[in-house]
Specification:
This protein is α+β, with helices and mostly antiparallel strands. It has two domains: about 110 residues, Rossmann fold (3-Layer(aba) Sandwich); about 130 residues, Tumour Suppressor Smad4 (Sandwich), CATH 2.60.200. Helices cover about 15% and strands about 40% of the residues. The chain has five helices and 17 strands. The strands form three sheets. The chain has a six-stranded antiparallel beta sheet, with no helix packed on it. The model has no long low-confidence stretch (mean pLDDT about 95).
């Protein structure tokens, strides 16, 4: 197809494996290392895993996903009959991941990507106490809570929405800063921030009240501080059927009751 070399990336689940066999003869698939675009079969979790692997390997290519999982918010619907026509007419959406820079109480440091959200969560029965700094200005000296998360527009309908955070339109250049079960201050419901503003969260008394940081599916425990910003050096491209486009799906989530 116009010089495009397609790889087929399939979740190990039985439904995805069965679907993958049905597609084997439709396209001259190549190994991932030789491909410049990919079809991904699985659910949202597998799609996130695949995108993270691309970021880690520095081999980023457009991906067209088909849902063989549960929700499939990041995927197109599964059907095989007109696959070539569908991917040729698909709309592309650019997504920039978050960069999570973590320091632990032992002095270790990590830099990890996150496509949906970065969440900080208490590790024990005791609430977390967090200092929130935005764009080098302390906005909350002490947030007492179960945790807090920073979500991208692509991830704003996931964990962020279940924590009563706002839905962000795709391409809005905004981030959602959402508390998880806040105790003090009781009336703080979170914030919507320009994505050019870095967010730094410091754990207060981290030895007594330990906190973990999770970037999508990657966790670092016993953190002292985390800085979250948009990684403008990396761009992911996701392909969607025109009638199933990601921006429309995110907007329509505001009317789901």
């Amino acid at each position: 197809m116009n010089g495009i070399r397609w790889a087929l990336i399939v979740s190990p689940t039985a439904p995805a494996q069965e679907a993958g066999k049905k597609l084997e003869s439709l396209i001259d698939w190549v190994p991932v290392e030789e491909a410049n675009q990919a079809v991904v079969l699985g659910g949202d979790g597998f799609m996130l895993q695949t995108l993270h692997q691309m970021l880690n390997r520095r081999k980023i290519m457009p991906v067209y996903g088909m849902n063989l999982g549960t929700v499939g918010f990041l995927m197109n619907n599964w059907h095989e009959d007109d696959l070539i026509k569908r991917i040729e007419s698909a709309r592309s959406f650019k997504v920039k991941p978050l960069k999570m820079e973590v320091e632990t109480i032992s002095g270790a440091s990590f830099v990890l990507p996150a496509i949906n959200e970065v969440s900080l969560l208490r590790e024990t029965r005791q609430t977390a106490k967090l200092e929130i700094e935005v764009n080098n200005r302390i906005m909350l000296e002490e947030l007492v809570c179960d945790g807090v998360l920073v979500a991208t527009p692509a991830g704003s309908t996931a964990y962020n929405l279940s924590a009563n955070g706002p839905i962000l339109p795709l391409g809005s250049n905004l981030l959602a800063l959402t508390p998880i079960s806040p105790f003090r201050p009781r009336r703080w419901k979170g914030a919507i921030l320009p994505d050019k503003m870095p967010i730094r969260i410091t754990v207060l008394n981290p030895e007594k009240r330990p906190v973990s940081a999770v970037g999508d599916q990657q966790e670092v425990r016993d953190i002292a501080q985390v800085t979250i910003s948009v990684d403008r050096n990396q761009t992911l491209t996701m392909l969607f059927d025109p009638e199933h486009a990601l921006d429309d799906r995110i907007a329509m989530e505001q009317f789901v009751v």
